[in-house]
Design a protein that fits this description.
By secondary structure, the chain is α+β, with helices and mostly antiparallel strands. The chain is 24% helix and 31% strand.
Length: 219
């Protein structure tokens, strides 16, 4: 399912203004398949089950780097999402956040690429909690200060949404997991469509404030 969604999202981009980069024989889904295969090949047994690589290097031919020039950031995000989804399906865990780096390999011919994978420990013990923003960006929720969302410029997540209060809601880690708490906002906070004052989040939950929806994910 992860790779299928990955391919469908990229196809939608290819059909638009980014169609020119894909005249090469190399297709993004090939990179996604290689990445998940590297996860399977380099998984290992840990105390809490199977641990998969979370740090990936994708090396492309110079011609393909040029063709993908306007697409690299989107490709990296989609590859990271495909890795998280594959880990969820296979029951893998990560030692740190998923990281994708794309480089140019001067000796590679067009259509050729190399994917390397390794287990990289993060600054904190997993699972790793992130909020997926509407533009695809991610905010990590660590063990430190809560992540505050609102219209104030000082907020960790600033939303230019008139239906969002200046300090609308916060996300904080507890011993049990991640909690979202409404901070007395005017229009309230909803999780999967239901109004909440405070609620423990599960991976995949949708948090809506005003007209903006964020997705909570554990990896």
């Amino acid at each position: 399912m992860g790779l299928q969604q990955f391919e469908e999202r990229l196809e939608r981009l290819v059909e638009g203004t980014l169609s020119k980069p894909f005249r090469s024989n190399l297709q993004p889904i090939e990179i996604g398949r290689r990445l998940t295969r590297e996860m399977d090949l380099h998984r290992r047994v840990g105390v809490r089950g199977l641990i998969a690589p979370n740090s990936f290097t994708v090396t492309l031919a110079p011609a393909d780097v040029d063709r993908f020039a306007n697409f690299i950031d989107s490709l990296s995000r989609e590859l990271a999402d495909a890795a998280r989804e594959h880990a969820r399906i296979e029951g893998y865990s990560f030692m740190g956040p998923v990281d994708i780096q794309v480089y140019e390999g001067a000796r590679l011919r067009p259509g050729r690429f190399v994917v390397t994978a390794e287990v990289a420990e993060g600054p904190e013990e997993g699972p790793f909690a992130t909020l997926v923003l509407p533009d695809g960006g991610r905010i990590e929720i660590g063990d430190g200060a809560p992540v505050v969302l609102g219209r104030m410029p000082e907020s960790d997540i600033v939303l230019n949404d008139p239906n969002v209060s200046r300090r609308h809601a916060e996300f904080r880690r507890t011993a049990e997991g991640v909690v979202v708490a409404d901070l007395g906002s005017t229009n309230g906070t909803r999780v999967n469509g239901s109004p909440v004052r405070e609620r423990m989040l599960e991976s995949g939950d949708e948090v809506t404030v005003g007209s903006t929806t964020l997705v909570f994910q554990l990896s």
